[in-house]
Amino acid sequence: MTATSSALSAGLAAGRFIVTTEVCPPKGSDCTEFLRKARALRPVVDAVNVTDNQGANMRISPLAPAALLVREGIEPILQLTCRDRNRMALQSELLAASALGITNVLALTGDFITFGDHREAKPVFDLDSVQLLRIIAGLNTGRDLSGSTLTGATSFFAGAAAAPEAEPFALTLPKLAKKAAAGARFLQTQAVFSPERFARFADAAHPLGMKVIAGILLLKSPGMARYVTERVPGLKVPPELVAELESAGDPLAAGIEIARRTVAAVRPFCDGVHIMAMGREDLVPAIVDGMERGNSEQTTI
Prior knowledge:
The protein has helices spanning 7-13, 32-41, 63-72, 87-99, 129-140, 173-182, 195-205, 222-231, 239-247, 251-266, 284-288, and strands at residues 18-23, 47-50, 76-81, 104-108, 157-162, 186-191, 211-217, 272-276. The protein is of the alpha/beta class. The two termini are 15 Å apart.
């Protein structure tokens, strides 16, 4: 199985507008609900991100749910963070993922332990996301980080995260260039609220050879919007969007409309969108309903 056999890499290479989303694995071993949500998304998305102890909250390793998606014929994007593993464990996890047929990996440094539910844990951070991307590139050539030859190379399609609205913007450019040089072929961004800032970001990222998938966050209520601004580093919901949610008779419906508007506004500048529905994965179809996906018909994952 090669990286180009994935719907994500093939769709991006063909210039098709990609839709991805994420489903959080369970805090436990029962993946029934996880699979139910993923199956429901099959007709409308190209791939499903499987998060890795998201927000530094302990859950099942994303490797198992991602492997279950492969078994279902649903393409996963395995998120892998450096927070909880050293370089040996990261390589072992990647080799296991390859053996299980997983081809897409999103390399992340990881949220700080203090954000989560095991604050007494010792963070690892042996490597950062750029170094993890270099490991992935090495495994794809058949060698581990020590230079030893592997019995079977990997064929990962590697991606990274990015913050398109971070300021000062100029300071984000060197990190983008490092991720591209380390082997990132696509970017999934944090939530986008300003299409103008996103266009500036995409103009900088595309010449580096990376496809850009814009993050679209479903704002479910004015309280959620305020929480994002106050508690999530690097994100600020514009006051006019908070006011729109506050004045709406149905804030959730208003949030869906804001997400749909944002998708339409960023589409000219990106290669796809990543819908972050925060537990309301059932609303992803409403956000992308009627959206043109490109010249070719959508392939079922």
